[in-house]
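Hi R.,

Here are the chain sequences for the assembly we discussed:
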Amino acid sequence: MEILLLILTGLLYSTGIYMLLRRSMVKLLIGIGLLGNGVNILIFLLGTITKGKPPVIEEAADVLTGIYADPIPQALILTAIVISFGLQAFAIVLLKRVYVLVNSDDLDDLNTPEEEDI
Amino acid sequence: MTDNYIILPVIIHLFAAILQLFLWRRTVAHRVVSVTACFIAMVIAIQLFTKVYNGGILIMEAANWKAPFGIVFVADIFSSSLVLLTSFSALAVSVFSSAGISRSRILYGYFPIFHFLVMGLNGAFLTGDIFNLYVWFEVIIISSFVLMTLGGRKAQVEGAVKYMAMNILASTFFLTGIAILYGITGSLNMADLSLKVAAIENRNLVNITALFFIIGFGIKSAVFPLYFWLPSSYHTPPSAVVATFGGLLTKVGIYALFRMCTLIFIPDEFTKNLLLLIAVFTIITGSFGALIKRNIRRLFSYLIVCHIGFMIGGLSMFTQVALTGALIYLFHDIMVKTNMFLIAGLIRQLRGTMNMDKLGGLYADYPLISLVIAIVLFSLAGVPPLSGFWPKISLFEAGFEGRHYILIAAIIIGSFLTLYVIAKMWAEVFWKNIPASKGSGEEIIDGFAALPLSKKIMLVGPIVFLAAITLYIGLGAENIAVLAQRISAEMMDTTPYIEAVLGNPQ
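And here is the predicted structure of the full complex:
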């Protein structure tokens, strides 16, 4: 399980970075999305995966004993998912707006020359 | 000592923003609420600063979850003085925006977003939990995205694409660093991390994790190979917005870098050399970039990059003297950079352009305003006895002690080029006669003279206010130096911080 997640994380990071380095704005968006997912899986992976041991305290006991799954990474991932959702939603709207104004998908076209500054 | 008072600088801006959402489309109410809230926040910040300065580190445990398990807010002298400076900047920008931001932008929620941004800044300065720091950073960047694009001119959205892509990438690096750090220590509390990271035997792993943080914060604070987003986006939004960005957003990256490097990852030789190299190149490239720019705001954007290098340089030497110098420079820089962009906005009001080729004759028309601006510009260039001069003494002293001659040379070149650029700008904008119009209808428009007196005061007042604080940093340098020395002592010996958060280990 760990080794699969490890490979998946590596794939998501590398494809994400590759997509960010392309000149197309759509690929920039895809890159942002892939990187966000890669980080989430990395947090999950590094929180050490424990199978079938929920962190629930039994009625008779006061504290958890033995090995149990760490709930913190899941809380972190939840927060990170919500944040990356918001950022991606903004990014999509922004790039749509840029496409309408510039009429091009190429990031190299985004250079209004200095002479047009106010 | 536990004290819930320290959350107030965050809460006040949150409430102001929510209140403004209820007053949607009522622009006068927005302005009044914003200025009032910023003023109250300033009073609170002053009180917080005096409390911390006299009484030691304050903490607040969210929902009473004990550290290191819950989220903890910590106000030591470093964070509370930055909260104080933020409140000064926020007040100045808020008053300036009331007159300088167009009505249509206020209608679409300029002020609520501005308050969310300042809330995020205060939160980032005060938090003692590394994941919480990440969340505050996200609050900051999403608000700054909206502020940057509000208005939707072509140049603005083009700049925003670069800004957005780089900042999201920086957040990803930062979060990756947090993930690895959690994986190797199992903690997120900064004080707890400080103890646990120090106990790790595999130092290479720690160094690699530190690199993730340095890249993440490096992008945010615009250091050498990662700064290109800054000069290509900061010249596009309204000047009041860029004043907040230039004064505070890059500095919150510096704050996080200082916090990380002094509390969690104590730099070893490799990291120190890396930071030194970054500092040297940042200073050189930033100042050379400023040389060729003809637009005032593009020029100032490059100067931001150049002066970030001074602070990184102080951090890279990592002695108490060097940190003291870097801290004084940080305080000076927040005030001056905010003011510089407000001045750019004022010049745009006065002349209708920010292009040096078309500007001129400001000194003849407005001698008093020019005098105030001169004080700010000379502070930036570091003419003694103004504020930019004093930190360089400490930086040189530390540099000669540690034999970092390359860094000293870079600082000298950086200071000299700053002086040259500022002198050139002064000659072009203030002394030169207004260039003759080329007959294509490009007459100089003076939008300032027609304004009512109250608006004139609202535009010039913040600049005078910030210039007065800059003057105090320069002329009262002894007090600031004592403050910076106390902070750097806390940085070199973090035991008080750790004890304040985790309680006294028995």
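The interface with chain B takes residues 20, 25, 28, 32, 35-36, 39, 42-43, 45-48, 70, 72-73, 76, 79-80, 83, 86-87, 90-91, 94-95, 97-98, 101-102, 107, 110-112, 114, 116-118 of chain A (CB under 8 Å). Helices of chain A lie at 2-21, 25-46, 72-102.

Let me know if anything looks off.

Best,
T.
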